[in-house]
Specification:
This protein is an alpha/beta fold and about 240 residues long. The chain has helices at about 15-25, 40-50, 65-75, 100-130, 150-170, 190-195, 195-205, 210-220, and strands at about 5-10, 30-35, 55-60, 80-85, 135-140, 175-185, 230-235. The chain is globular and about 50 Å long.
Length: about 240
């Protein structure tokens, strides 16, 4: 396969963004990965290039219009089809509403929702001009419901979900597959392993989502024929209570 896949919001190598990059690069696409930390991007780039994949990384803040413009200028400069854009940026932290500052609330919204608007605004003209391509967003259980101590996160993710729905209805008829993937459960990545190792251990085998299994789901969405597109897909461990 040929074409470029852009993944925004790539952090640790043992994370969803990096796993998606591995999956698409392994299928023959050129993976462009963007994130805020050079060290983490470099680790993922080295892993994928070492396995024979085509990849490049860009340090960028998804909440910055200037950074996003720079990323998409690099995409355009490749002069090849933009096959998929995956918006995976987000952060999560429990904060009591009484302790939540206006600055924190805005920061979570800017990363979880506003950055997706900026990416979509730049990606959709390219995808719709092609008449094909994928635009996927990583959601969470908070996309569907707000829980105590997570008001800031729920607002950002609910906004992202509604953005995805609006774009799917507007750009689907133009050949662009817009999908929203709800991650319901703990992801077995570096953050959880480092901060909540005991909790992760308590979940047992297959009690947390494997990033590579999540990436398989993104790939399955991308590979769907246009006659049977999925807009929303929810993923959770078989043990997860929902």
């Amino acid at each position: 396969m040929s074409g470029t896949v852009l993944i925004l919001g790539v952090g640790a190598a043992a994370g969803v963004g990096a796993a998606v990059a591995r999956k698409f690069a392994g299928a023959g696409y050129h993976a462009m990965i963007a994130g805020r930390t050079l060290e983490k991007l470099s680790a993922t780039e080295a892993e994928i290039s070492g396995a024979g994949g085509s990849i490049e990384s860009i340090v960028a803040d998804v909440t910055s219009q200037e950074d996003q413009q720079r990323v998409f200028e690099l995409v355009r400069a490749r002069n090849e089809p933009l096959s998929a854009v995956i918006y995976n940026a987000g952060s999560n932290l429990p904060i009591k509403f009484s302790d939540l500052s206006p600055e924190q609330f805005e920061d979570f919204w800017r990363i979880g929702c506003f950055g997706a608007f900026l990416s979509s605004r730049l990606a959709l003209p390219l995808l719709s001009e092609q008449g094909k391509g994928s635009l996927f967003f990583t959601g969470a259980s908070a996309s569907l419901r707000g829980r105590p101590n997570f008001a800031h996160f729920a607002v950002a993710k609910a906004g992202l979900r509604n953005l995805a729905q609006a774009l799917a209805r507007e750009y689907g008829p133009q050949g662009v597959h817009v999908a929203h993937v709800i991650i319901d459960g703990v992801v077995n990545g570096d953050i959880v392993r480092g901060r909540f190792a005991d909790f992760l251990e308590s979940l047992g085998d297959d009690g947390a989502l494997d990033p590579d299994a999540i990436a398989d789901a993104f790939w399955a969405l991308h590979a769907q024929p246009a006659s049977a597109w999925t807009h929303e897909l929810d993923l959770r461990p078989y043990k997860e209570s929902w």
